[in-house]
Amino acid sequence: MDFFPLFLLFFLAISALVIASKTIKIVPQATVMLIERLGRFSRLATSGLNVIVPFLDRPRAVYWTGTRSGLTSIDLREQFIDLPPQPVITRDNVTIHVDSVVYWQITDPIKAVYEVADLVGAIIQLTITGMRSVIGEMDLDHTLSSREQINSKLRVILDEATDKWGVKVTRVDVKNISPPEDVRVTMEKQMTAERNRRALVLQAEGEKQAAIARAEGEKQAAITRAEGEKEAAILQAEGAAQARLRAAAAEAEAIARISQSLLGQGDPSHYLLTTRYIESLKEMARANNSKVIFMPVETASVLSSVGAIKEVFTETGEKRDEEETTAALPPGRTRQLPR
User: Fold this and answer.
1) What secondary structure, in 3-state letters, does 197-233 show?
2) How far is CA 233 from CA 14, 24, 192, 246, in A?
3) What is the Cα–Cα distance from 238 to 232, expressed in whole angstroms?
């Protein structure tokens, strides 16, 4: 009978601990707990100390894919789901494997628990179907070069679909897109050919630009040479004109002075012509042509005088011979003229 009080005291202590554990709930920061009373939602227990009615109130447990079974606390922080590679068929019937990461956050824990049975599994399946829908509208080349577009479309699709679940999809990132091996080899060959083509195009473009630059340089050089020759010809013509004007002015002054010096003593033009004639003879005498003989004007005048004298003497001699012949003939005969 002495052990009964101790046993009763021990039983009461154990019962108090059980009742206290069911009454007092400590919720961590950024975590909430859904309290149900007799199977119906009662209130939302936020972070800190929360007291509930034992045996009537209890936290709602969730069973989500990838989480601990029977979890009662709901994390409100941003979370991510790393999806394994999924087979996706593009519009040009090429099967590729795509793996992605989805970042999401619970904004309304009541909807996240009561609107969908498996929140994480639903997000995974929605991501897979959305990815197949988006990539199925693109060709392989477009898919490989448009990751940002795929991410944006997937985020919009998931965000609209999960809004009624109290979830906000913040970001979707496609990590890897793996085409089949034969397609990959073909793409590498195509990429090599494309690079070779671009290299040839760039080389041809460079040669074209170089040829254009050389042609422009030659054009500018020709224009510069023509401008220089033009200016030189103009300067030369102006110099020759000024020289002729100065020579003409000097000659006019010389003629004026000669006219003043020979005033009343002779014709100045005769003097000038004689001077020019002598200068011309000097120039002609320097020529290498030995078959041409130049004689001054005075020599031609002398020769003309000599020819005239010769003709006079010839006529005088003929008259003398005729007189002598007439005297030698007998009287009564006349001289016959030659026929």
Assistant:
1) HHHHHHHHHHHHHHHHHHHHHHHHHHHHHHHHHHHHH
2) 126, 113, 60, 19
3) 10
Cα distances (angstroms) measured from residue 46 to each of 34, 58, 79, 98? 9, 14, 19, 39
Measured at the CA of 252, the angle between CA 251 and CA 254, to 5 degrees, comes to: 60
Q: How far apart are CA 244 and CA 254, in angstroms?
A: 15
Whether the pTM exceeds 0.70: the reply is no
Contact 128, 174 (CB under 8 A): no
Distance CA 33, CA 31 (A): 7
Q: What is the CA radius of gyration of the chain?
A: 66
From the centroid of its chain, how far is CA 11? 89
Q: Are 166 and 107 in contact (CB under 8 A)?
A: yes
Whether the Cβ atoms of residue 125 and residue 141 lie closer than 8 Å to each other: no
The set of residues, in sequence order, having a beta carbon less than 8 Å from that of 113 and lying 6+ positions away, is 34, 60, 62, 74, 119
Q: Give, for all 339 residues of the chain, the pLDDT tens digit.
A: 456 777 777 777 887 777 777 788 889 999 999 999 988 999 999 988 888 888 888 899 999 998 888 888 999 999 999 999 999 999 988 899 999 999 999 999 999 999 999 999 999 999 999 999 999 999 988 888 888 999 999 999 999 999 999 999 999 999 898 888 888 888 788 888 988 999 999 999 999 999 999 999 999 999 999 999 999 999 999 988 898 888 888 878 877 777 777 666 666 666 666 777 777 766 766 666 555 555 555 544 544 444 544 554 465 555 555 555 555 445 444 444 444
